[in-house]
Amino acid sequence: MTNENTLPSTDTAELSGFAALGITGALLKATHTAGFSEPKPIQVQAIPLQLEGRDIFGIAQTGSGKTAAFALPILSKIIGLGTKRRPKTARALILAPTRELAVQIEETIKILAKGAHISTALVLGGVSRFSQVKKIGPGVDVLIATPGRLTDLVREGDLILADTKWLVLDEGDRMLDMGFINDVKRIAKATAPDRQTALFSATMPDEIAELAKGLLKNPVRIEVAPQSTAAAEIVQSVVLARTKQKRQVLSKMLADEAMRSVIVFSRTKHGADRVTKDLARDGFEAAVIHGNKSQNARQKALNDFRDGSVRILVATDIAARGIDVPGISHVVNFDLPDEAESYVHRIGRTGRNGRDGIAITLCDPSENAKLRQVERIIRMKLPVVADHLASPDPQRDPREKAVRHFEPANDREHHGGRRDGRRPGNGDDKQRFGAKPHGERGPKPQGERPAAAKPNGERKPDGFKRFKGNNKRRFGGKRPANRAA
Ligand code: AMP
Asked: Which atom of ligand 1 sits closest to the CA of residue 62?
C-alpha cells in the first residue's frame, strides 16, 4: 500500500468520544441516542481521516464497528450539501455483497442519521425493481446496494452514478468470492472521478490488494482485527459423530435451555433444509436462511431470530459473515465448511460485544481433513468434548423418507463464486451465456443473482470496460433477459 499513516493530531483537550473525532450536531446526538458513547478503535482511526477527505483501506470484520466508521464521515459531509438532489442520482454509494448486509447497513445509517434529513434507498436483487426505481427517482443521499441489481439499474439508465462522490465497498473479499469483482470495478468507474473511496475487507487476498490499488487514491490502511483469528471469548469444541448420528446429537444438544439463541450452520442449502425439517420433526421450531430462499423469506427468518420469536436459525455460509445479531449464545457447525476461513466467520456470529459465546462443531470422520485445516488457520487444536463414534447409528422412523446423500450441483452457497471476477459458471462460455434454450440450462449459479444470459458473444464478462461515455452505453444498454438480482 502506498501510505501507512498515523492519526492526525487533533486537539481533544475539551472534546471526547465521537465529538473529538469531528462528529457534530444531529449526527453526534443520534450517535449517542444509538448508544454509541465511546468510539470503537476502527472509528477512532477511520473517522477523522475520512473527514479530511482520505481514502481508506480497512482490514476489519463485521462486528468491529466499521459501518459507523464509514457512515458517519459520509453523512457529516452530505449534511453540509443541503437537501437539493439531482434526479436519479446518489450522493454516496455503499456496495455490499449480500442483501442481508445491505439491509443491516441501511438500518444503521438510518439510526445514525436520525433527525438529519438524509434520504437512503436500498437496491437489492430478489425484490421489486419498480419500488427501487421509484425511490431513486428524485435522487437519494445514500444508496446501499448489492452489485447485481445495481448494475441492472445503471444499465437501464434508472440510476446515474456520475455525481456519486462517496463510494464504500464493504466486505470486499466476499464480493470477490461471489464473483462480483468486475461488476464492482465497472460500478466504481461510473462514479465521479474525484470521489472519495473506502474499501473494507475481513481478509486480504492478493486480488483485494490489487482492487485497492486500482480504486483507492493514496489510501490510509487501517487494520483492527488480526486476519483469520477467532475472537478470544468464544469457547470452541468438537463433537465426533457420524453423519447419520448428527441429527440426534443436535436435537439432544438443543434440549438444553442454556442454548438460548443458536445458529446451526450447514455446508449446503439442501442440508440446511434437511436439518430444519429434522429439527421440526424432533419438536424444535427453526428458521432457515440460504441463497435459494426469497429475499422476504430470508429477511423474515432473520427478523424472527433477531427478535427471539425463534431461538434456532439454520443457515448456510451466506449468513456466516456480515450478519450481526446480538446475543447469539451458540454456533453449531452441523458440518465443516469447505473453506476453513468460513469457520472463523461462522463462529464469529457468537461472542460478540464482549459476551461469551460457544461454538460446537460436529465432525464425521470423513471431515477430519477439513477439521485439521480449520485448526491450522485458527492456530489451535480444538478439544473433543464428546465422541459418539462407538455408538450405533440411530434407527430412522420408517415413515420418514430415507436421507438423501447426494449433493445437487448447485447446492453449495459458494458454487460459482470466482476469484478471477468472471461471472459464475462452469468455465464453458456456451453454457454460461445460455447456448441452450432457457429451461434446459443447468441450475442457476449461486450468489446474489444468476449469470448473465445474453447469447454467446453479445456480452463478454469484462465487456463493459470498452464503453466510454454515458452509463447506458458503458453498462451494456439492454438488460439481460433473466437477471433476477
Ligand atoms: P458493525 O461492525 O458496523 O456491524 O458493528 C457491530 C456492532 O457494534 C453493531 O451492533 C453496532 O451497533 C455496534 N457498534 C458500533 N459502534 C459502536 C460504538 N461506538 N459503541 C457501541 N456499539 C457500537
From this structure: 2
